[in-house]
Design goal:
Helices cover about 15% and strands about 45% of the residues. The chain is mostly beta strands and about 230 residues long. The chain has one domain: Fumarylacetoacetate hydrolase, domain 2. The two termini are about 35 Å apart.
Amino acid sequence: MSGMTIDVLVHAGGTATRQQVTVNRLVIAGWTGRDPVARDKHIAELEALGIPRPATTPIYYEVAARRLTTSDAIEVSGADSSGEVEFVLVKAGGRLLLGVGSDHTDRKVETYNITVSKQICDKPVAPELWLVDDVLAHWDQLVLRAYATIGGERVLYQEGALSGMLAPADLIARRYGEAGLPEGTAMFGGTFAAKGGIRPADRFAYELVDPVLNRSIRHGYAIEQRVIAG
């Protein structure tokens, strides 16, 4: 299986070390909200774009690991894609790590095949990870936030605490059972509804904030549109 190796800064127990992490499998978890009202709001948001309801909640999409990137720019086909901030779980070296990324998705393709829509866009991730054990005691207080630059204006696009999402143990167990997240696997953990609705942007910035340990992981990327010739 062809994987993806990324250089990351790993924070564990108060120590930060530069490491290379290899991801052999990428899983995008969807509809992971604990609150059914908030979850259904996001489902309705996508339905308004012609995107069908998921077969199950949560649902897990398999994507090529090589779609992961820490680049500050991605290329997309046309003007129908957009980002989604998500927490990212990574199993590496026997440890469960936490980061943040964007499940960038082609919304036009999503109307007829969600799995394919996930596959055709790169998945930007921040080159920084935290040890999950360091944040488990205050997991629900962690905050995801995203900003979109649209027409030259930077606007708050998404925001929410992880109390609104399934906890990591539950999210992993529903896919892998007691075996846990396999070594070399990265899993995106779901997202929040977009403020003002889903729409494309010129740049997408995202962050994971820990208000208890007073730290954050921030990253962002430009979206470079390529013309669809036919």
